[in-house]
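Posted in: Structural Biology > Protein-Ligand Complexes

Title: Requesting predicted complex, 2-phosphoglycolic acid in pocket

I'd be grateful if someone could produce the 3D structure tokens for the following input. Sequence and ligand are given below.
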Amino acid sequence: MREFLIAGNWKMNLNPDEALELTQAIIDGYEMDQELPVQVLICPPSVFLAEAADIAYDSELWIGAQNVSQYPNGAYTGEISAAMLAGWGAEYCIVGHSERRQYFGESDSLINQKSKALIEHHIRPIICVGETLEERKAGRQNEVVSAQLSGCLQGITLGIPSEIVIAYEPVWAIGTGETASPEQAQEMHAFIRAELAKRYDPEVSEEVQILYGGSMKPDNARELLSCPDVDGGLIGGASLKADQFLSIVNTAFGLVS
Ligand code: PGA
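-- Reply #1 --
Done. Output follows.
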């Protein structure tokens, strides 16, 4: 059975004190019930990872990164390798976020290389896919997401438990306050699962967590998380406020208890 994964994407926000305060507030703010299938993850900027992982060490909170180099080591000024992230305690890493595709020119093939580097170091990539508003208006969302999946998953073999997470993030819903309706989210998540079943064993595709991202908030989390193929959320804005993030976490707990 798939577990919920509630993941906070802090993006490039907060100062060191705020980052530690937020990490602590999240750890203190929910009671993890080992029996319940809900995982909680924060992805702070890399400079805060080591300390966040330190604070979270004895807790049930998972720590992840937002980006990684495709290279293992060497003369790549400014880059951070998967081995370094693993050393800092990162268990997950977001790759292919639409902001990285848009502002840093990341292609599906680069995202594929980064995902492989992460898997090699036992870090689960959270691979982001999603269409733009123009693409949705033109009815091309399935075609776009299918092509992104093909490029990003090239040569990646999957087992159970799954080494990857997929995040469906319609670009038009990120940071805009616009959210996909539960019907739109469910339709795309089911499509992604069917696409995974074509590429992998159907049993494997049933195990892959598919998160929804794009203006998920306390007031829409319940209806989105109630969709059968939505296995959690990748949460940006609302993950920067402990009360809002915890409210979404508690919604997930409420749905499985
Ligand atoms: P948002 O961001 O929740 O602020 O829309 C989601 C994301 O970009 O991962």
